[in-house]
């Protein structure tokens, strides 16, 4: 299925399902029930006779009646709404005007080009009056204006020019990061619309948009509707080869794997599987495909696929994606070397006592490989020691740094240069006995060079905390 068709298909499924109504939609219904006294604006000389005649007829008209009012003079439609938006200051009336305009655009998508043409003829920016509203204190006005910007940007024959596009995408990104944003669903919906357009995706990535999405998905709990909308945005990005090859740098696979394991909503499951499939299917670099596959294996995606297969699934998209992912991941596991497994685990940041950590042979053969790519894996271990609060991760990271020093002749110097020695030493007093134990072993390895001597002196059974073992 072609990209555009696939996007449309998923959107149709979304519309067919019961969708949580956003706060903006709820309040828009209240706004529509209001009545504006247009005559008072005429009498107060705030609007002209022409504006009064048009808007009083347009207001409360049916879609067919609106079309008949616009078609004789489309430029009048754009002119009057711009005039009203720029001159009316009262929040309640401005809410009504924006809702009426939003409805009119929804009725006929080609009307966005009327605004584009009007702005071109008058050498004005089509965006300026709406961008100006994004600074208002009334949040309904702000987000209703944002919806209109998104519609003009996505439905127009000509794309949004880069400078305005950057400004708008940065604004949307900031709305995602805004704590307790009651209009988060509307911001996400605008972003969904924007990222359906191929030309806008790279710009969103360039303004650090992916990290904004992942911070919401990985942060405080959000509802399934927000999860769906933001993962939809990631799915849109995953259709672009140049973007999908960089996506897991933002820890997307672990985040989506966690959501998949907890989600009970089919539409969330569907969009995660579709994103995972693109991450294996779209990259042209085979190493990237393998990296993504290994990340999914490390994050227990295979187990989740097995659980999903055990359910009765009627959605053919889910069934098809399940089949593809199972085959691809099974193939990747067969090609997996112990060092591949280790690399993937370290990069995921989810360290556990997998067999490679306790294998003398593994460290003897692979310790020197932690120097590759400018000590990439070693630096990740150091960063985990700096940032993690998880006792298991700290224990494994301290252990691995000790094994690196033990089996790589110049390891002590490298570890000291990276600041890891001091980090390990601070965990000698950690509250968790397993962390203290692994830190002590690592410090011994950093201080002693004769390993056979160390082995004779170190009574592991006495140091080993009760209940300690390989999981």
UniProtKB/TrEMBL annotation:
Gene3D superfamilies attached to this UniProt entry: Leucine-rich Repeat Variant, V-type ATPase, subunit H, C-terminal domain
Q: Name one GO cellular component term.
A: lysosomal membrane
- The residue ranges of the ATPase V1 complex subunit H C-terminal domain are 336-451
Keyword list (alphabetical) reads: Hydrogen ion transport, Ion transport, Transport
Is Ion transport a UniProt keyword of this protein? yes
Note the InterPro entries from the entry: ARM-like, ARM-type_fold, ATPase_V1-cplx_hsu, ATPase_V1-cplx_hsu_C, ATPase_V1-cplx_hsu_C_sf
Q: Which domain of life is it from?
A: Eukaryota
User: One MF term in GO for this entry?
Assistant: proton-transporting ATPase activity, rotational mechanism
Coiled coil spans: none
Q: Does the keyword Ion transport apply?
A: yes
Tell me the protein family, please. Belongs to the V-ATPase H subunit family.
Subunit structure as annotated in this protein's UniProt entry = V-ATPase is a heteromultimeric enzyme made up of two complexes: the ATP-hydrolytic V1 complex and the proton translocation V0 complex.
Q: What role does this protein play?
A: Subunit of the V1 complex of vacuolar(H+)-ATPase (V-ATPase), a multisubunit enzyme composed of a peripheral complex (V1) that hydrolyzes ATP and a membrane integral complex (V0) that translocates protons. V-ATPase is responsible for acidifying and maintaining the pH of intracellular compartments.
What this protein is called in its record is V-type proton ATPase subunit H
Query: What is the organism field in this record?
Result: Pomacea canaliculata (Golden apple snail)
